[in-house]
Amino acid sequence: MSIDVVPVPSQDTARPGPLGLTPPGSWQDPDSHYLTALTSPWYAALLGLQSTLTAATVSFWTARGLRFGHLPVTTGSVSSPMGLGSDSLPVQVDLFGAPTYLADSMQFGLEFLCRLNPEGAYYLMPSFRGEAPDATHLCQFFHSEAEIPGTLDDVIEVTEAYLRHVVAELVAGHAETIREAAGGLDHVEALLADPAPFRRITFEEAVAELGDDPAYVSTADGWRTLTRAGERELMRRLGEFVWVTHWDQLAVPFYQRRDEHGRAFNGDLLFGPGEVVGAGERHIDGPEVLAALRTHEVDPAEYAWYVDMKSRIPLLTSGFGLGVERFFMWLLRQSDIRDFALLPRVNGRTVLP
User: Fold this and answer.
1) Where are the beta strands (DSSP E) in the chain?
2) How does pLDDT run across 56-71, given as a tens digit for each residue?
3) The whole model's pTM is what?
């Protein structure tokens, strides 16, 4: 796939010191962080990167006919509910007496929008998670998500094209920022110079590659997943940008379709800190969803609307979500995701502004 890069004037605002552009680590004191960030070259540069990524996202999907949906940040149907296959804690709030959730993802909303626009839908919006933050997790982060009609193979192909487009635009506008923070441009130049599809392996192949080592493969009751160490070991052995597909059915949320062998039609793209993109093929109709809810031991009551929608308008769609801050970790070769929030948020604590 060829990448056309339109030269634009540099938007870099960073003024690196002798050691290059480095984050100040001010998130460690959330109450005074904003004072440091106000005069920090790191955060001025981060704002420029965020702006360009947003513009590149809009241009990419607009050219393909997808439409941006203005979706709410509250929902009654979280896409990572408590239950088998859940990898996060939902954030429940009281909204004037009505129990609701802050969205962990509005993938269900994108599936709804796919039925309004045949080419699909996308958005960039915040996601909320109940876990404590650490070096690769934020309590509030940004998701770049899209849903298209088609299969897992279709969405993997378009995800790779999207990544190359965004990286090309970021290099065009922010080469100095990337060079100063990452120590060079080799990683982005290598991605843009190689149009070949990223390597794919199945989850079973990943387990075999890792020798089923418990440090790399975590086993629960009837399903397995990769640890963060396992993700990094796969990248060390196989190189960055590797898809791990067809996971155990119970290792992924209920909305992922499964094949005749009970494996999910899903894929995680590993690069940078580990999993940065999650993708999957969705159930076509209501009965498929109900069967999956039963298998995952999830109460179907909150998903009655979802079952009804798919029963009334069956449609095969697939989608992906990219964690923007994890993507920036790869772009700038940084090791702590907490350096990528302009205004950090911590669950259980009021942080101003």
Assistant:
1) 67-68, 74-75, 91-95, 98-102, 121-128, 140-149, 199-202, 217-219, 224-226, 242-245, 266-271, 274-281, 317-323
2) 999 999 999 999 999 9
3) 0.93
